[in-house]
TrEMBL record:
<dbReference type="GO" id="GO:0030170">
    <property type="term" value="F:pyridoxal phosphate binding"/>
</dbReference>
<dbReference type="InterPro" id="IPR011833">
    <property type="entry name" value="Glycg_phsphrylas"/>
</dbReference>
<keyword id="KW-0119">Carbohydrate metabolism</keyword>
<dbReference type="GO" id="GO:0005737">
    <property type="term" value="C:cytoplasm"/>
</dbReference>
<dbReference type="GO" id="GO:0008184">
    <property type="term" value="F:glycogen phosphorylase activity"/>
</dbReference>
<dbReference type="InterPro" id="IPR035090">
    <property type="entry name" value="Pyridoxal_P_attach_site"/>
</dbReference>
<dbReference type="InterPro" id="IPR000811">
    <property type="entry name" value="Glyco_trans_35"/>
</dbReference>
<comment type="function">
    <text>Phosphorylase is an important allosteric enzyme in carbohydrate metabolism. Enzymes from different sources differ in their regulatory mechanisms and in their natural substrates. However, all known phosphorylases share catalytic and structural properties.</text>
</comment>
<keyword id="KW-0808">Transferase</keyword>
<dbReference type="GO" id="GO:0005980">
    <property type="term" value="P:glycogen catabolic process"/>
</dbReference>
<comment type="similarity">
    <text>Belongs to the glycogen phosphorylase family.</text>
</comment>
<keyword id="KW-0963">Cytoplasm</keyword>
<keyword id="KW-0328">Glycosyltransferase</keyword>
<comment type="function">
    <text>Allosteric enzyme that catalyzes the rate-limiting step in glycogen catabolism, the phosphorolytic cleavage of glycogen to produce glucose-1-phosphate, and plays a central role in maintaining cellular and organismal glucose homeostasis.</text>
</comment>
<keyword id="KW-0021">Allosteric enzyme</keyword>
<keyword id="KW-0663">Pyridoxal phosphate</keyword>
<protein>
    <recommendedName>
        <fullName>Alpha-1,4 glucan phosphorylase</fullName>
        <ecNumber>2.4.1.1</ecNumber>
    </recommendedName>
</protein>
Length: 823
């Protein structure tokens, strides 16, 4: 047995070389001895794995050094709990952050292997859906970059969300098989395994006094959570942090008695039930079974993560009373909100603290990021389901709630109405546990993700909780990592910027401001335009390969890529396309701006209207793209299976960025930041971070339209009449009539009648109310596009002025103002 003292005396390995010749030799060695292939017969995926293993060695050196440094200095750790981490491909990211892109490329070239082709083989990790998951990934990279010791915690989904295919224009959901051939970046940690319970009963022992009475939860079901670790490399490899994902295993993988008795399916029942926890992201929750699985997933990863956090703290410090001094736990939305109740259970039932001490430690340790103002997106669970699945946690929720409500009534004089609003139990209709309220009350900090969103949060979904605890809500405007979303995905622009202003912006994105004078430089504008055209050619080639559609890169590339949801208003964009289609045919004598409208995004499997909007986009595309009278002036393209890798091609190619959500409904957005950083002009409402983007880039360099959040609220309060609005807009009325009557769906003329009639009847998302303003804004874009020099001057200023939206800045604010962690 090797003792700790002997380990401490072992020398550290020498730094591994970045010399291309030595890298090439190591790749051949790994190909031979780790993969078992001769270079003469190796396939592209073999070269990919061998390359990852060689790069991984260099990452591991820094990973272990980072871990040792945190342990030795006693630095505070941040734990980021998120049901999603949309990390994308990792190889190029790691190589770039190690500063070895050129060396690895040269090493592979010497072996006759193309670096870009190899890295393109890596599957996208199917660990997220949209902006929330991508934000978590950007934050993990930025925490490592700004030297904040951190763990990310989530679930290692086998199939993730789903792989989206199109069948006659309809979304079809298929399993995403990203783990089918293993994942060379991850490490299984068999020692980090924890028992997770569900159901059962709660017994009370002791003589009934508060000092001796204890509750013992006896779960009916138990599974084992086992950790898989992935290193997350910061810029210049200053720090490497850990993404720890949990997979579920049964206590007994097979019931042999049942199997031998012939019940082969029943024998695997427990195994299948456990594995279901880590199979699919966001199982449809329209059924009781779907709701139960989703709650099980949320508790599963929350409990495993907290047990791991407490074990690590006790191992290093030996006393949980110091937890909040050394640990900061960030809840990314309400998905891990059950962690508040689980922390109380662990502290009270397992570690024998009294209620008040446990509650003080819990609140001091947790903080919560809210991502939505949509009431339906603030999760709540039926009390019977919650109590059946987590009986001890239900007791603790009631106990916490009683504590809070007594304070609200006795100390703050809250009325019955306000008491009902701040309660963790929703009494309207069937009683439900409000996870947003649990997260709020169990945290010392609650942050919004844009200035507008934070103020609206105080006024709407958390207005009464804000009144009860007015010092808790604060703003942390979202950001994106400029490494992935400029330096890696847009190498042409990255190189052009470096040549113009040097390398300082690589370490501080706000130094992109040095690019501003080049917006007036005709030569630089021309080179900037050439880079944009190269990116548009790349996207056009992708569309041609995947979809057989030929595009003209000289057209204006108008792109809307995001989760398909009615509040994001892809429908508004499609209706405007129908209207302009009619105008082009009616007025062929006019000079129309050639335009390609791109869409990409996934609809939740149970969200019928969102799936119908995808079908409408494809039906409209089929008609317009095949109409010779349009002369190629307008094309519509819906690219299936939107993911990080597709975004990395689409974002650099965009001329126009569609950020057109109903004002007051988008918390922040991060796509708006990515597009602006890559030199696209934004057309958008004053919603989410669009407000702050306008402040940064200037009113002349963004196209804003539509109702403000205040005006939307006023319209709804005043009894908005969409039918009158539609009837007073000739272009809108004609476009809606064409869609509803089956012009674009001749095989089923009533296909879209319900979707369109909904606009006449209620139009909650103000599509009709904003339509005319949107069309005027689009014609303003046409006018701007005609003046090429002025257009690129504006887009260069967008790139120059959005460095503030770096996730490095966001994380530094979290670290200083919420977590009290890092340098």
């Amino acid at each position: 047995m090797i003792t700790k003292s002997v380990i401490a005396d072992l020398p550290s390995p020498p730094p591994r070389s970045a010399d291309p010749a030595k890298l090439a030799a190591e790749i051949i060695e790994r190909l031979t001895y780790s993969i078992g292939k001769d270079a003469k017969v190796a396939k592209p995926h073999d070269w990919m794995t061998a390359t990852i293993l060689v790069i991984r060695d260099r990452v591991i050196d820094r990973w272990m050094a980072s871990t040792r440094q945190t342990y030795e200095t006693g630095g505070k750790r941040v734990y980021y709990l998120s049901l999603e981490f949309l990390i994308g491909r990792l190889t190029r990211d790691a190589v770039s952050n190690l500063g070895m892109i050129d060396e690895v490329r040269e090493a592979l070239n010497s072996l006759g292997v193309d670096f870009d082709a190899v890295t393109a083989l890596e599957p996208d990790a199917a660990l997220g859906n949209g902006g929330l998951g991508r934000l978590a990934a950007c934050f993990m990279e930025s925490m490592a970059t700004v030297d904040v010791p951190a763990y990310g915690y989530g679930i290692r989904y086998v199939h993730g969300l789903f792989r989206q295919q199109m069948s006659d224009g309809w979304q079809v959901e298929l399993p995403e098989t990203w783990l089918a051939n293993g994942n060379a970046w991850e490490f299984q940690r068999r020692e980090s395994a924890y028992e997770i319970g569900f159901g059962g009963s709660v017994d009370t022992i002791g003589n009934g006094s508060d000092e001796t009475q204890r509750c013992i939860w006896k779960p009916q079901e138990r599974v084992i959570a086992t950790a898989f670790d992935t290193p997350v490399v910061g810029w210049r490899a200053k720090r490497v942090n850990t993404l720890r994902l949990w997979t579920a295993q049964p206590i007994d993988p097979i019931l042999l008695d049942a199997f031998n008795a012939g019940d082969h399916i029943g024998a695997l029942r427990e195994s299948n039930k456990a594995e279901a926890l880590a199979r699919v992201l966001y199982p449809a929750d329209q059924t009781p079974a779907g709701q139960e699985l989703r709650l099980r997933q949320e508790y599963f990863f929350s409990s495993a993560s907290l047990q791991d956090i407490l074990r690590r703290h006790l191992q290093q410090y030996g006393d949980l009373r110091t937890l909040a001094d050394k640990v900061a736990i960030q809840l990314n939305d309400t998905h891990p909100a059950v962690s508040v109740a689980e922390m109380m259970r662990l502290l009270i039932d397992i570690h024998r603290m009294d209620f008040d001490q446990a509650w003080d430690i819990t609140r001091a340790t947790f903080s919560y990021t809210n991502h939505t103002l949509l009431p339906e997106a603030l999760e709540s669970w039926p009390v019977p389901l919650f109590e059946r699945l987590l009986p001890r946690h239900m007791q603790l929720v009631y106990a916490i709630n009683a504590n809070v409500l007594r304070h609200a009534r006795k100390d703050r004089g809250f009325s019955d109405e306000k008491i009902r609003a701040v309660s963790m139990i929703d009494e309207a209709g069937d009683r439900r546990v409000r996870m947003g309220n649990l997260a709020f009350l169990g945290s010392h900090s609650i942050n919004g993700v844009s200035a507008l969103h934070t103020e609206l949060m105080k006024q709407t979904v958390f207005s009464d909780l804000h009144g009860l605890y007015p010092d808790r809500i604060n703003n942390k405007t979202n950001g994106i990592t400029p490494r992935r979303w400029l330096m890696q995905c847009n190498r042409g622009l990255f190189g052009l910027i470096r040549e113009a202003i040097g390398d300082d912006f690589m370490d501080d994105a706000e130094k992109l401001k040095a690019l501003e004078p080049f917006a007036r430089d005709a030569g630089f504008r021309a080179r900037f335009a050439n880079v944009k055209r190269d990116n548009k050619v790349r996207l056009s080639n992708l569309v041609a390969r995947r979809m057989g559609i030929r595009l003209d890169p000289s057209s204006l590339f108008d792109i809307q890529i995001k989760r398909i949801h009615e509040y994001k208003r892809q429908l508004l964009n499609i209706i405007e396309a129908v209207a302009i289609y009619d105008q082009i045919r009616s007025h062929p004598e006019l000079d129309w701006t050639p335009r390609v409208k791109f869409f990409a995004g996934k609809a939740a499997p149970s969200y019928y209207n969102a799936k119908l909007i995808i079908k409408l986009a494809n039906d409209v595309a089929r008609v317009i793209n095949n109409d010779p009278t349009v002369r190629g002036l307008l094309k519509i393209v819906f690219i299936p299976n939107y993911n990080v890798s597709l975004a990395e091609v689409m974002v650099p190619a965009a001329d126009l960025s569609e950020q057109i959500s109903t004002a007051g409904m988008e918390a922040s957005g991060t796509g708006n930041m990515k597009f602006a950083l890559n030199g696209a002009l934004t057309i958008g409402t004053l919603d989410g971070a669009n407000v702050e983007i306008r402040e940064c880039v200037g009113e002349d360099n963004i196209v804003i339209f539509g109702l403000t959040a205040e005006e939307v609220a006023q319209q709804r309060a005043d009894g908005y009449n969409p039918r009158a609005v539609i009837e007073n807009s000739r272009e809108l009325s004609q476009a809606l009539t064409a869609i509803a009557s089956g012009v674009f769906s001749p095989d089923d003329r009533d296909r879209f009648s319900g979707l369109i009639s909904g606009l006449y009847e209620h139009d909650w998302f103000m599509v009709a109310a904003d339509f005319d303003a949107y069309t005027r804004a689009q014609r303003q874009v046409d006018s701007l596009w005609v003046d090429e020099e002025a257009w690129y001057g504006r887009t260069i200023l967008n790139t120059a002025r959005v460095g503030w939206f770096s996730s490095d800045r966001t994380i530094r604010q979290y670290a200083k103002e919420i977590w009290k962690a890092g340098p």
